[in-house]
Specification:
Helix content: 10-25%
Bound molecules: MU-OXO-diiron, calcium ion
Shape: globular
Length: 660
């Protein structure tokens, strides 16, 4: 249990770029907004940085010193655990009284014929039968399809979906070394392993004698990879820009890439979201091809960090210029039918989807919220054309193919409008290159820009709090925002620590065209970083940096996972809990701390709140860390075994609910 020196170097793969060419809004508009905001607040000078806790339902308690060192004092929080101390270690840790169980690791066999994991003998065939790399989004569903006679509540069994977002080439294979050259050095066979390490897994899990385990060979177990055939549906299906030499109809694509976060539907399917696919495509056409401008808007470059395009033709833009148009979508997967074909739902738009969370509008239509995770990109919402049918699950099968995609425009007065991305409306005309709705969804980013959407500080997870119906948006950071580019919803220049917005749909209806919004918290170290906003009793251990994925327990408390805290704040990534209402609103407490180099993602609570599932992604991802000498060998700590991204289950030792 060694504490490591801090701070570390930058992680190797993160999109630090900016694809939105001119995120700045006209300065006149900005000034006018600020003036009107001040007027609305009766001339309060601090309008733009109005503290989050001012929105609290109850007044915050008297100020308390941040450095009390008294981690046992829950203060006004409803969370009963003693919070951890910020530190940085090869090992992970959780609050006292809780236990970490390693549920499934990269390479663990999923099927009866799966070979045992041997990192020195990896093949594409073996990886395609084992749990993939860099787990992210987790969904925990009942063991039988909802609405079926068998679909009884059973808290000891579940079917789990897990995304496999990307690969750390230098930590997966011996002899590759580190740095940008490493990925260029790998062999064609290793690229094939990486293809199989992407995608997602369906795996049945079971709790026996208080311990969660995955069930090898279970009926529903399935691996989805970068080569699993998927149907393309919705407005982009069959579009000229979706056609390739392997798929002249433009309706069938092999695999999904960089699936980060996701969501579920009310009818029991998974929505899994393609994010940083741009890193896997390369070739001179990025600069010179007919689609160069569109590539650029999605961050596609001639020489990406990964070597795939050198070994696999379809990732080479010079050979298959349309292949990247077939990625960046939300994929719907039926976890209850291992033979089902996943479907890319193009009506939901093409961008770097972080996740896709559902809510139901007052009239029964399904509403899906999704953030585009890049600096200065947008927040989107899709509303189905028809209500979902709880009594006829088959009737919902293609519900996500018809509806309205919108993009958010935040106003300085605390409201926001959802602007529809509909071909033929406003600037989305043939003169601007939008001949069909297919054009609009393929270039959703450019369409959003033309409509005047608000460029945000990297929208990560968006989740609805089941207790208050409010929608929470994690904006992870944006160190590139200048003082001239701040606005009310992104109020900090050089926002290296991020913030969380709280949106309230008008009339409590997720289908409404407008909403109100407020800042729930602004991350960073209180008293050190400018503009932080927490509950005043947040301790010296409870502040956080780079919020990414969030989850809610059945009491409506928020659980915030972070990604990037080591670089931004010199602390390990972790998971923090906080009340969203009452005296403890916004009082974040550190519950779990990741091992060196790892981010925490995929947080989800079991239906009885007694287990918290987390994905621990990219352990050992630090500059200079290699297969031979990783900065951690979490979770096995076996000589010669590289670090293994894993899903963990956290339980309370006395069997109680997480957080008390
Ligand atoms: Fe894959 Fe936006 O994190
Ligand atoms: Ca991630
Ligand atoms: Ca994320
Ligand atoms: Ca992230």
């Amino acid at each position: 249990m060694t504490d490591l020196p801090m701070p570390r170097d930058l992680p190797e793969i993160e999109d630090t770029g900016r694809s939105n060419p001119d995120p700045r809004r006209p300065i006149g508009e900005l000034i006018a907004e600020r003036l009107s905001r001040r007027a609305a607040l009766g001339g309060l000078a601090a309008a733009v940085l109005a503290p989050a806790v001012a929105q609290a339902q109850a007044p915050a308690p008297a100020p308390r010193a941040h450095d009390t060192g008294n981690a046992n004092d829950a203060g006004p929080s409803s969370l009963g655990f003693a919070e951890l101390r910020h530190r940085y270690s090869q090992r992970d840790s959780v609050a006292e009284g809780y236990e970490i169980q390693t549920l499934i690791r990269w390479g663990d066999p999923l099927f009866n014929d799966s070979p045992a994991f041997d990192p020195l003998k990896q093949t594409a065939a073996s990886q395609s039968r084992q749990f993939g790399y860099n787990c992210d989004f987790i969904a925990v569903l009942p063991p039988f399809r909802p609405g079926t006679a068998q679909g009884q509540r059973d808290v000891d069994r579940a079917v789990m979906w897990v995304n496999h977002e990307y690969t750390n080439t230098n930590l997966m294979f011996p002899g590759v070394g580190t740095g940008p050259e490493a990925r260029a050095r790998i062999t064609a066979a290793q690229v094939q392993v990486e293809l199989m390490a992407h995608g997602g897994s369906v795996v049945e899990i079971r709790r026996e004698a208080g311990r969660w385990r995955h069930v090898k060979g279970a009926r529903l177990n399935r691996r989805i990879t970068a080569e699993t055939p998927m149907r393309i549906s919705g407005p982009a299906a069959g579009h000229a820009r979706m056609k390739t030499s392997a798929d002249p109809a433009g309706t069938l694509v092999l695999g999904m890439l960089n699936n980060c976060a996701g969501g579920t539907t009310p009818w029991g399917t998974i929505l899994t979201c393609e994010e940083n696919f741009n890193f896997l495509f390369g070739g001179a056409a990025a600069d010179t091809g007919a689609q160069a401008a569109a590539y650029k808007r999605y961050g596609i470059t001639a020489s990406p960090p990964y070597a795939w395009f050198r070994h696999v033709d379809r990732f080479n833009l010079d050979r298959e210029p349309n292949e990247p148009n077939r990625f960046g979508w939300v994929v719907e997967i039926d976890p209850y039918d291992p033979a089902s074909t996943p479907v890319k739902r193009t009506a939901l738009g093409r961008f770097k989807h972080e996740g896709c969370t559902h809510a139901v509008a007052a009239d029964g239509r399904v509403v899906l919220y999704s953030g585009d995770d890049e600096r200065f990109e947008f927040i989107y919402r899709f509303v189905t054309a028809r209500p979902w049918d709880p009594n006829n699950l088959a009737a919902n099968r293609d519900l996500l193919d018809e509806g309205t995609l919108s993009v958010a425009k935040f106003e300085a007065n605390g409201t926001l409008a959802w602007l529809p991305l509909v071909q033929g409306q406003g600037p989305l005309t043939p003169e601007n290159g939008f001949h069909t709705q297919g054009d609009v969804v393929i270039e959703a980013r450019r369409a959003g820009t033309l409509l005047g959407a608000t460029p945000m500080d990297r929208p990560e997870d968006i989740e609805t709090n089941p207790m208050n119906g409010k929608v929470y948006v994690a904006l992870t950071n944006n160190g590139n925002r200048t003082a001239q580019q701040v606005d009310a919803a992104n109020p900090r220049a050089r926002n290296t620590h991020g913030h969380i917005l709280e949106m309230t749909p008008t009339g409590g209806d997720h289908g409404a065209a407008t909403a109100n919004w407020a800042i729930f918290l602004a991350a960073g170290k209180p008293g050190v970083d400018p503009g932080t906003q927490y509950h005043r009793a947040t301790s010296d251990q409870g502040w956080l940096s780079c919020p990414d994925n969030v989850a809610f327990d059945s009491k409506g408390r928020i659980w915030i996972a972070t990604d990037g805290a080591p670089d931004a704040a010199g602390i390990a990534d972790g998971l923090y809990g906080a009340d969203t209402a009452g005296l403890g609103r916004g009082l974040t407490k550190l519950f779990y701390q990741a091992p060196a180099g790892a981010e925490v993602c995929g947080p989800v609570l079991a239906s009885d709140d007694k287990t918290l599932f987390l994905s621990i992604q990219h352990p050992g991802e630090e500059r200079g860390s290699t297969y031979e000498t990783p900065t951690t060998r979490w979770p096995d700590f076996t000589p010669g075994m590289p670090p293994r991204p894993s899903v963990i289950a956290i339980v309370k030792k006395d069997g109680g609910a997480i957080g008390g």
